[in-house]
Amino acid sequence: MTLPLNTILSGDCIAMMDSLPAKSVDLVFADPPYNLQLGGELLRPNNSKVEGVDEEWDRFSDFAAYDAFTRAWLKSARRILKDDGALWVIGSYHNIFRVGAILQDLGYWMLNDIVWRKTNPMPNFKGTRFTNAHETMIWCAKSAETRYTFNYDSMKALNDDLQMRSDWTLPLCTGGERLKSGGKKTHPTQKPESLLYRVLMASTKPGDVVLDPFFGTGTTGAVAKKLGRNFIGCERDPEYIAAAKERIAKVIPVADPSVLMAISKRSEPRIPFGSVLERGLLNPGDLLFGGTRHDKVAKVRADGTLITDIHRGSIHKVGALVQNAPACNGWTYWHFQAGHDEFMPIDVLRQKIRAELH
Amino acid sequence: MTLPLNTILSGDCIAMMDSLPAKSVDLVFADPPYNLQLGGELLRPNNSKVEGVDEEWDRFSDFAAYDAFTRAWLKSARRILKDDGALWVIGSYHNIFRVGAILQDLGYWMLNDIVWRKTNPMPNFKGTRFTNAHETMIWCAKSAETRYTFNYDSMKALNDDLQMRSDWTLPLCTGGERLKSGGKKTHPTQKPESLLYRVLMASTKPGDVVLDPFFGTGTTGAVAKKLGRNFIGCERDPEYIAAAKERIAKVIPVADPSVLMAISKRSEPRIPFGSVLERGLLNPGDLLFGGTRHDKVAKVRADGTLITDIHRGSIHKVGALVQNAPACNGWTYWHFQAGHDEFMPIDVLRQKIRAELH
DNA sequence: GAATCATTTGAATCTTTAC
DNA sequence: GGTAAAGATTCAAATGATT
């Protein structure tokens, strides 16, 4: 079976997900309904307050229904996730704690909880509580043992070369981005594209398949299309589906795929230190220098090992030994003499070789 | 029975709470074990060791054991709470979702979840996830029908006459405030007094009784005494108790809490260039132009870096490289094409984002 | 003594590949 | 499956050392 890529499946998300092949999706992003147990359900039809044991039973039954629903869709999502896939859920204090506990119970492995700080939240008009100015997202891998995609360098770049933190400050979806029909908002809880931009940039690769079980008006699909990812949406409401289709059709994908690729040291090809010798960038007998004052010295041997008066081994091993450190990256630790008083890390030689590979 | 006010009860918190009269306490503040379940040792890039939390009190065999423990102490706490009392719990993603779900199951009524944004969190040294830069507190009333204390105006005053939001930006407990014994921290997870200050100012009145079931080194007691509230602590570890007693003895209550309200002024928020992309003000693949004749050209990548035929990096770095200059302010150097022959500096896009923050 | 630079540290579920 | 080796990786703030 081929996946219904870049389409919206009309119907209940559990049935829809169950119709897809197992281990076929790279990412699930879910914005499920918030807990329905609020307000009126605490009142009887005659408006008297529910009290005592009845109260607890009622409430338990409400939470139980929400829990059962949550468990069901999270189970279905887990089946279709690839083993190295991941899942995001967004919610508020009404539902996110139940969602989080069930995620853990099902074996998902939490990677972060992310706080979306709203720059422009709705104030608390009655002054009864703190302004509810954030929502919470949970990001988790399929299990504690599985791998997952995290474009660390992209996130760092997006944040002016500082590690991206677990709190994200972004505005609500308003203005031209907010879908309207007949002057009213099409969907009550449309999420901003900036939020999905960061989610997809962080945890997917170009070409990945992203499934959204509660597609709504298609923010996930719109951003996925823009960023060169494939999407699958599940949605029951025909009006939302129509709005999402129209919206996504207008999205222009980024034309140049090269601007989408994450650049990470981890994904670059490995270069053995021996290659540096084979290409004559260094020669057997050359000296390498380590330490802040370049006072540690080692001699390069023809087989690519280093030797000092007492140590012998790889650039990493000898680097660790001369520093008496548990570990060492020899590429950045060792320097060669490039001029009278100029030392350069041997990593530049590796870069030279890597450049030739392109 | 009279309450053991302003004392530390030595022993298990559940037994201690069960020994107190029902409906006798105005507030419970709890910093329970987080159930971190850390793996092996973790080294910083400089190879120094991170002191993790591996205390016996944070070890649980599985989620079921942690849940049973959580349910037990939350039940005991609920019995001793006055009907118009409230409870706070702090935690991280390791435990807070389980705590939150159990709170709801027991009939507590959530008022807010509060995010403590750390100004100086520990980074993610291995680049595997987002920097875990926050913890979560849940504030709840005893039930949906009960009243609770919220000093709305105090909170507004604390926040420059703006409603206090659900995200609080506060530094970790370090420096002189951090209790040390023999050069090492007395308690691995001592909370900052600023956090408790805000909690107690928000949700208690002078003279109220505040119980902390996991008293540790007594931050709750210290701030309670300072603010003219009464405290009751429960703690098992004699060393923590001794440190807390000594600490609290030194606290001088303040006559007028308003003198403590000095709150750091917010500085102009830093806007990473990546935000411009996330918000769609520029798009991946767009061209930027530098130089007086706009003859330097760079392409915007999806992660917020720029790329030319030979250079790659942040707006500042690439700006410097194309000019062969030591440094460059990319915000003013780079321009985007706003019309047929019109170029505008990308700084106007930053201004646009800043305006939304106010 | 002031200024500058180097070191330390904080609730952390913290690697990947080859053999 | 396990073990060993390669090699990638940190931010803010306080404290201590040096000039």
TrEMBL record, chains A, B:
> Which part of the chain is the RAMA domain?
264-355
**Family annotation (InterPro entries):** DNA_methylase_N4/N6 (IPR002941), DNA_methylase_N6_adenine_CS (IPR002052), RAMA (IPR040843), RM_Methyltransferase (IPR001091), SAM-dependent_MTases_sf (IPR029063)
What are this entry's molecular-function GO terms? DNA binding; N-methyltransferase activity; site-specific DNA-methyltransferase (adenine-specific) activity
EC number(s) stated in the UniProt entry for this protein: 2.1.1.-
Residue ranges constituting the DNA methylase N-4/N-6 domain according to the UniProt record? 25-246
What are the protein's UniProt keywords?
Answer: DNA replication, DNA-binding, Methyltransferase, S-adenosyl-L-methionine, Transferase
Q: A GO biological process this protein is involved in?
A: DNA replication
What family name appears in the similarity comment?
Answer: Belongs to the N(4)/N(6)-methyltransferase family.
The species is Paramagnetospirillum marisnigri
Q: What is this protein called?
A: Methyltransferase
Catalytic activity annotated for this protein?
Answer: a 2'-deoxyadenosine in DNA + S-adenosyl-L-methionine = an N(6)-methyl-2'-deoxyadenosine in DNA + S-adenosyl-L-homocysteine + H(+)
One matching Pfam family is RAMA
Sorted alphabetically, which Gene3D superfamilies does this protein's record hold?
A: Vaccinia Virus protein VP39
Question: Which leading EC class covers this enzyme?
Answer: transferase
Coiled coil (UniProt feature): none
GO cellular component term of the entry, any: cytoplasm
